[in-house]
Design brief:
heterodimer; A: alpha/beta; D-Maltodextrin-Binding Protein, domain 2; 2 domains; ten-stranded mixed β-sheet; two-stranded antiparallel sheet; 15% strand; B: mainly alpha; MetI-like fold; 14 helices; 74% helix; 1% strand
């Protein structure tokens, strides 16, 4: 009895001390101290960014105690996979998303609010605004740029020369583009002047919207509630593309082209002009078969230029239990070293405007042209963007196909306008 | 997961059975029987009945991806009636089912004739015809997708090499060609199974019947009409049910090979409901479609089995 009488308080004190120590330690790790504590993190990206994301993850893993396990999911299955995982609360710690899908994800509450962390970054003002804008909802920031890319026109200088065209003069309007494509197709041997993806909604958004923006049209309203595709610019665009297809200035496989093998023919040196974007620059820089040039996407009459600022954002999923560690990774990807030595070095665009003049991007006039073009660029916003525009069974793909292979451009655009608008109305 | 549930489920009735045993041997038998049935019952309940109940309740709710579902009565079913994609999918699925079933049977009969002969090499053919069946549908579809591509595919290269065409065919370019490509894929993949099952049926008919018929002067057609066909009727019934059900539930080949295109012309019911659930995130509507499909399948199979049974009598 006597022993117990003093033992109890001692135990009490010890317990209290332990609790205090634990509490202090706990709050410390979750806020300030080193979040690089050997945590296993998971991250999902879509296959469009596979090598890009892999390079970043490898570099982070080799220089940090934390380990990021990267899962690459085919582009087409990304929406469905994320949807299923969200339903069963099994999302990864870090979730990347095509910028155009991100409004839907932020609205559905898939990401954690990271406004305070992002705004505390010393380079916060120079993070790509186009991406931050679509990754924000109700004034809160939910994700940061993961990959930045921009659509442009590529052309094969060797084929231009063979066809008797000036290899230093890229087409500057639709009339020139059509004329150049005809001359190059005339070379024969399976060479085509142009290349288009007739069953790929994402490709259409990426390379057709900029023509319309360059002509001063808006396509989607800022709040993402109105679509405007039954317009003069889209009529010129689809009329020109239909001519390309009807005159067989494109490969026969273009009707069924879903985007998966779209750049293959250009990269093999068999296509004269290809509208695509900065993601293929890395591959083009590596090949030595032919010389290539870059030009901005232009208005049908050449009166302006524009680009689709696409790519991916990455955020911390709502169900992640490793917020501090996941942020450590995201923050690291935005810092100078990763942006310049990993991203820019490979020919990709840095996600910060203050780094657009870095030594790698500035060294090549072609990558510099792409980086400089960003100032005229747009990233469209709409909640059901993936469902309406990227979905292979959606109304935008139907519009493209009806315009190119159906009876007429006018009817296709009128139908597409009303169907896409109906989809926007239903979601807002 | 299912393993542990099964075991837990199996133990509970076991104690019940021991308790009863002392009361008398008369009550023992039914409970021993129950004991044996329990594992299966638990699996069926856990993996089929419970999910089914959830599905049916989902179909009466507005079910968001995250957040709380809300009861919305028959709204989801009302949406279906105005959903052109779903109605188009039903028509297409029925068409596809009809064509596939007929083509599969026609080809399988020919293959049975080839591989049922006592000639040398018959066994080799039998194996060769059956081999594609062991390839997964998704894998086979991916293979077909690459093979039929204008740029990479061997189909086009082969056709051009023998000068049947001078330009790539574009196997997935038009609705007709896309449907044709899918049916060739399905035939290539499933006809081996069909053939083996038919072969077993044909070989189970006693040879004496044929001998007797021949002695009586029956022609080849008569032997086929009065001996072979009646003899394999149960086999035909089984294959028809399998083929019709399988075709109505077709998904992988369309999802991988055509994505429901071109122009949504090859959209099957299951693909439509998959898109609705995971592209558009309208889970309630998708559940309603699934319930409609389930009811239709139950009715159809009931009718099919009835018809085939009365004919047999």
């Amino acid at each position: 009895m006597a022993i117990n009488r003093w033992r109890l308080p001692v135990i009490g004190v010890v317990v209290a001390l332990t609790v205090a120590a634990c509490g202090g330690g706990g709050s410390k790790t979750s806020s300030s101290s080193n979040p690089d504590d050997g945590t296993q993190l998971t991250m999902w990206v879509r296959s469009a960014t596979d090598q890009f994301s892999q390079r970043l993850v490898d570099a982070y893993n080799s220089s940090h105690k934390n380990h990021v396990a990267l899962t690459i999911i085919p582009n087409d299955n990304y929406l469905t996979k994320v949807g299923a995982a969200a339903g069963s609360k099994s999302l990864p710690d870090i979730l990347a998303s095509d910028v155009v899908y991100s409004p839907n994800y932020t609205k559905q509450g898939l990401f954690q609010d990271i406004s305070a962390d992002v705004k505390a970054l010393p380079f916060y003002p120079s993070i790509a605004q186009s991406h931050l804008k679509v990754a924000s909802y109700d004034g809160k920031i939910y994700a940061v740029p993961h990959k930045l890319d921009s659509s442009v026109l590529f052309y094969n200088k060797d084929l231009f020369k063979q066809a008797g065209l000036d290899p230093e003069k890229a087409p500057a309007n639709f009339t020139e583009m059509l004329a150049d494509a005809r001359k190059i197709t005339a070379l024969g041997h399976g060479i085509t002047g142009f290349d288009l993806a007739g069953s790929c909604g994402g490709c259409g958004v990426y390379t057709l919207f900029p023509y319309a923006w360059a002509a001063g049209e808006q396509v989607l309203s800022d709040d993402g509630k109105k679509v405007m595709i039954n317009t003069p610019a889209f009529k010129s665009i689809f009329t020109m593309y239909k001519q390309m297809s009807d005159e067989k200035l494109v490969d026969s496989s273009d009707k069924a082209q879903d985007g998966s093998t779209w750049p293959a023919n250009f990269e093999a040196g068999k296509v004269g002009i290809l509208p695509l974007g900065s993601p293929i620059v890395g591959d083009l820089l590596k090949q030595t078969k032919f010389k290539w040039g870059v030009a901005p996407l232009m208005a049908p009459d050449g009166s302006g230029t524009s680009t689709f600022i696409g790519g991916d954002v990455a955020g911390i999923s709502a169900t992640s239990k490793h917020r501090a560690q996941a942020w450590d990774f995201l923050k690291w990807t935005l810092e100078d070293n990763a942006q310049v030595e990993i991203i820019a070095k490979n020919g990709d665009l840095p996600g910060r405007t203050d780094l657009s003049g870095n030594k790698y991007t500035a060294a090549d006039p072609r990558t510099k042209l792409i980086a400089d073009g960003l100032k005229n660029g747009h990233t469209p916003f709409a909640l059901p963007f993936g469902d309406l525009f990227n979905n292979p069974n959606g109304p935008w793909v139907a519009t493209i196909r009806a315009a190119l292979y159906g009876p007429g451009v006018d009817q296709a655009l009128a139908d597409g306008q009303s169907k896409i608008q109906a989809g926007l109305d239903a979601a807002n | 997961m299912s393993l542990t549930t099964t075991r837990a489920g199996a133990e509970a009735p076991a104690t019940g059975a021991t308790a009863r045993r002392s009361r008398g041997s008369a009550a023992r038998r039914p409970f021993t029987g129950l004991l044996f049935v329990t594992p299966t019952a638990v699996i069926v309940a856990g993996l089929f009945l419970v999910p089914l109940a959830i599905l049916v309740s989902m179909s009466f709710m507005d079910w968001p991806l995250l957040g709380t579902p809300q009861f919305d009565g028959l709204d989801n079913y009302r949406h279906l009636a105005h959903d052109n994609q779903f109605i188009g999918a039903i028509t297409f699925t029925l068409l596809y089912t009809a064509i596939t079933t007929v083509v599969l049977f026609a080809v399988a009969f020919v293959l049975v004739a080839v591989s049922n002969s006592p000639r040398r090499g018959a066994r080799f053919y039998r194996t060769a015809f059956f081999l594609p069946y062991v390839v997964g549908t998704a894998a086979a579809s991916t293979m077909w997708w690459v093979d039929s591509s204008d740029r990479l595919g061997i189909f086009n290269q082969a056709l051009q090499a023998v000068h049947l065409t001078d330009k790539p065919v574009g196997f997935l370019d038009t609705p007709g060609k896309a449907l044709f490509s899918v049916i060739t894929l399905v035939t290539w993949k499933f006809v081996g199974f069909q053939m083996v099952v038919l072969l077993v049926g044909v070989q189970s008919i006693p040879g004496e019947l044929y001998e007797a018929a021949r002695v009586d002067g029956a022609s080849t057609m008569q032997r086929l009409r009065y001996i072979t066909l009646p003899g394999i009727k149960p086999t035909l019934a089984l294959l028809t049910v399998l083929s019709v059900t399988g075709s109505l539930l077709a998904f992988d080949q369309f999802y991988v090979l055509t994505h429901g295109g071109p122009d949504n012309s090859t959209m099957t019911v299951v693909l439509a409901l998959y898109n609705k659930a995971f592209q558009s995130y309208r889970l309630g509507d998708a559940a309603a479609e699934a319930v409609v499909l389930l009811v239709a399948l139950i009715l159809l199979n009931f009718v099919q089995l009835r018809l085939l049974r009365t004919k047999e009598d």
